[in-house]
Write a structure and sequence with these properties.
Strand content: over 45%
Shape: globular
Number of domains: 1
Structural class: mainly beta
Number of strands: 24
CATH superfamily: TolB, C-terminal domain
Order of helices and strands: EEEEEEEEEEEEEEEEEEEEEHEEE
Strand order of the largest sheet: 1-24-23-22
């Protein structure tokens, strides 16, 4: 799957894959036929979006899409009409400057540079957590324990940390293994291990529950992953990355966990 410009959002709902890019206000929709067989179906256009979305997320449980709109300071909720057309109903979360999104079973996590907002999709209630002053967040996941794993810059250095609901630090990944961590994904069904997308090093790395480095999961040399920027787990992994070094064309590739050879860590 290719789009014009850098990939800034990937989501899957049933057999449809939704892709946003930094060069378009529309959302590209692809149908998934299996393996690397994708067919572009349509482009979704919404007059509410005046600038490219920051990210997109899908809820399989509620059959909803969420689109981060930083220019309008909100996250839009998209629903499918009885005729099968996607429409923007209303903002799910307002008064935010979203940089990315993540979802668990019932809750949407809206990531801002210095704050996290957990939105309960059923109860329609947001709860906010302030992040440490030294942290500039790029992405985050809510864990099964109710804590948050956040990636970005910590005191001007690349970082992946775990914080509690008060924003207190619990764990931190050794920064020597990171360059520009920008996105996270759970790795296994137990959600204990996680993947970190590091665009500058052209790698996706695997961390354990203590945020200790385990292995390189994907990289440029073995997997043709150039400047990765997004990853979404759906039985397999959808990875958004660049086609070439100029970042003018974005690509979304599919990787099966059992087919990806975990590469040993290089010496640092």
């Amino acid at each position: 799957m290719t789009v014009s410009g850098r990939v800034c959002g990937v989501a899957q709902l049933d057999d449809e894959i939704f892709v946003c890019s930094e060069s378009s206000t529309s959302v590209a929709v692809f149908s998934f036929q299996g393996r690397q067989d994708f067919t572009k179906q349509e482009e979704l256009h919404f007059h509410e979006l005046t600038t490219p979305p920051q990210d997109i997320a899908a809820s399989e449980r509620f059959q909803l899409l969420f689109v981060a709109d930083r220019s309008d300071h909100c996250v839009w909720q998209l629903e499918k009409s009885s005729r099968g057309h996607w429409r923007m109903e209303c903002p799910a979360v307002s008064k935010v400057e979203p940089v990315s999104l993540s979802l668990n079973d019932k809750r949407l996590l809206v990531v801002e540079k210095q704050r996290l907002t957990v939105f309960d999709i059923e109860k329609r209630k947001p709860k906010r957590t302030s992040l440490p002053d030294s942290l500039q967040a790029e992405h985050a996941l809510e864990t099964l324990c109710g804590t948050f794993v956040v990636c970005g810059q910590v005191a001007g250095k690349p970082g992946v940390i775990e914080v509690n609901r008060r924003g207190g630090l619990l764990h931190m990944c050794d920064p020597q293994y990171l360059e520009v961590p920008c996105y996270l994904s759970i790795f296994g069904n137990d959600e204990a291990d996680l993947l970190v997308v590091d665009g500058r090093s052209h790698r996706v790395i695997l961390l354990n529950s203590g945020l200790e480095l385990v292995r390189v999961f994907l990289d440029k040399d073995h997997d043709d992953v150039l400047q990765p920027c997004r990853i979404v787990k759906s039985g397999y992994f959808l990875v958004g990355h660049a086609e070439s070094s100029d970042d003018s064309v974005g690509v979304v590739s599919l990787y099966w966990p059992q087919k990806s050879a975990l590469q040993p860590l290089p010496d640092f």
